[in-house]
User: Fold this.
Amino acid sequence: MTSHASTAGAGTGKSIVKILGGGREVGRSCVFLRVQDKSILLDCGLHPGKRNLARLPHLDFLRENPPDAVVITHYHIDHIGALPYLSTATGFDGPIYMTKPTKDLGELVISDFLRLNGSEVPFSEEDVTRCLNAATIMETGQTVQVLDGLDLRLLYAGHTLGAVMVQVIAHGYVVLYTGDITTFPERLIDTLCVSGATPQPDLLIMESTYAGSIREYSRRSNERLLLKEVSNTLEAGGKVLIPAFAVGRTLEIVAILTSYSRRCNLSFPIHVSSPLARAAMKAMLEQDPSWFAEGVQEHVLRELIELQERIPLSQRSRVDDSEYQMVLIAAPAMLNAGFSREVFQKWRSDERNLVALPGFGYSDGSKGTESGYRCRIRNYSLSAHADAMGLFQLVRKLRPKKVVLVHGEDRPIESLEKLLKSDLGIRVKSPRTGDRVSLSRFENHVRCPDSLWELNHDRRESTELAERALLAFQKETDVFADKGSSGGVKQSFSPGSLPGRPSFRVFFE
Assistant:
């Protein structure tokens, strides 16, 4: 194993981070890392909110700068979706690394995307099969030597089944790329684990999806709020619509609902919206049990395996029957199109009904009568992304020398960037898609001309709002560091070391 030594600055004018996608945006995550003569591509996703070729990352750069290897952190479309196009666009034929759940579920996700949007992307089902068949399966904790002087190690990321962080050691220069991470335990998936990471990495490339938000309640509290509202709605004769991603999130919600119904000896019908949701649940439950949270007992997985075969697909006669009480988990999660939107339009006029939004960051629709609908709309903040508190704690735990923030929008990223600089004294960059960051001259980075059109938001307002929220939370929980008289940082919180995986947990109960 290569020893940890900071050598990237020694004669390494070529050592860069090039943001091919996911810079100041949530979507098409794709980061090119080069340290001297070694390079790697971290994720290769599509942008679900754009159309046609605008969905793709800037892969043209790789024609003249081919990476030595590619690592995909997880199966979500914004991290894996453009992988089938990589070899066609650039001629890449090197190794591709991912976990088995990422490979199995990624095939479902990309194939479903092609079914709905195939005319908008320049690759086919055959390309999907070819690239995934060429993938090399890795496990968490495993170290792979790609080349002499280039090693990879995968770390458990939480977030979703099979998701990993990637530690890259190139000529002794240590980089940790988070992909998407969770800093709290979910019902089926554990929180991230950094016990195998090299302390004080030279560079941390970190997601920032919810860098400007702090959850009002803990994960378990939000689950209880959801279950209480579901129970009250059904007792009142209403229906419950839960818009959710078919792959991954549907199984998590089914586990929450069935656990509650078992404990309380209740019985209510749960429906899912598509064959994809059922296929995804089946594929997830066939994975190695070690990918699930430690607290998930074998009998729970067996129960879910049996249950997912019995969950009926949504029937239009049931959807249209105003007297039939049901919980419907339907895609898409954003409620902007498709079956979930169709059902919402049908149920919106009945004040007995509930639309339960499990995604973090939606607005509360409690004043729906003013907007043309009478049903209740509630957000339960069950997102699998770390919030500002979790991201801050992770950086403080790792103590990296430099940080590059990706996978987030302008205001949240700017808030977190300012906080990390002021409170931890760490050098931080938040480049846009197309920008290049020099690892030897980190204070400056080359901005892509495409990013100049972006509006210059009022940074002072956004950062002050975030800081006020963080300070308020600090007073309540005392989990942030206290500033000493010298301006340094005095630790007032240390995550408990628990047996087994993971050793680093952050609970905000």
Q: What stands out?
A: DSSP finds 14 helices and 22 strands in the chain. The longest helix spans residues 459-477. The mean pLDDT is 82. The longest strand covers residues 150-156.
